[in-house]
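Re: the request from the purification team.
They wanted to know what the chain is likely to look like in 3D before they choose a buffer screen. I agreed to run a prediction and write the result into the notebook, where they can find it.
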Amino acid sequence: MSKDPRGYYQTLGVSYSATYEEIKISYRNLAKRCHPDLNKGHDTTALFQSINEAYSVLSDPIQRRNYDQSGSPIQSVSRSQSARQNVYESKPQIDPYHCVDCGCVSPQLRHILYTQVVSFLFGSHKTNIWGIFCEQCGSKRLTKASIITGAFGWMSAPGLLYSAHALGRNLTGGKKENLINLEISLRQAVYYHLNGDKKNARIAATDARQFANGVQDGWWNDNEKRRAKELKPIIDEILD
């Protein structure tokens, strides 16, 4: 069997022995360079999703070990065993995601994309901003962007169109990609689960299940559906 059957190491451009810090640095550089909103005229959505998928596996000691050993990030567990095996028992700790603004760890972090528009006499400037936010910081960001857009975004013909789209997105909570938020919610759930915080683990895992259902409802991306299906046993393990 190939050491890298799904190309995760190749996608991130790291070696099989790369440390967590090396993986994280490579991921951040690639994510910034390949984000769809920063590559106008080039469809980098699939590449960006592949980068996130590779990072979600290789940055997780449990999934990375399983991937290195069997080619799959998921370790199959038989429910008929008399002593049911917990897939996280006595496993290494993992790092949770943090809010990019306040730095807090929350069971309900979200990857949110929102838009801000500022217009001039003969033109306008539209900025798409994205990051992982807690509920409070995400609300502040969206409110600020909406106020600026409402005050300064409409003063040109293009600005009227951009502002209408931006305000529609912002006032409904911003754009939240199901697969990316599935990965984030599940990582938070595993973090709390390993630390014995069952309440927050269930909150995060419940959100992960909702995002997984959102992925399954789509019809356009089989790779996303496959990834959601792979992660479902971990969600079920935490919620059971």
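For the purification team: The chain has three domains: 1-72, 110-170, 177-240.
Please add any questions underneath this entry.
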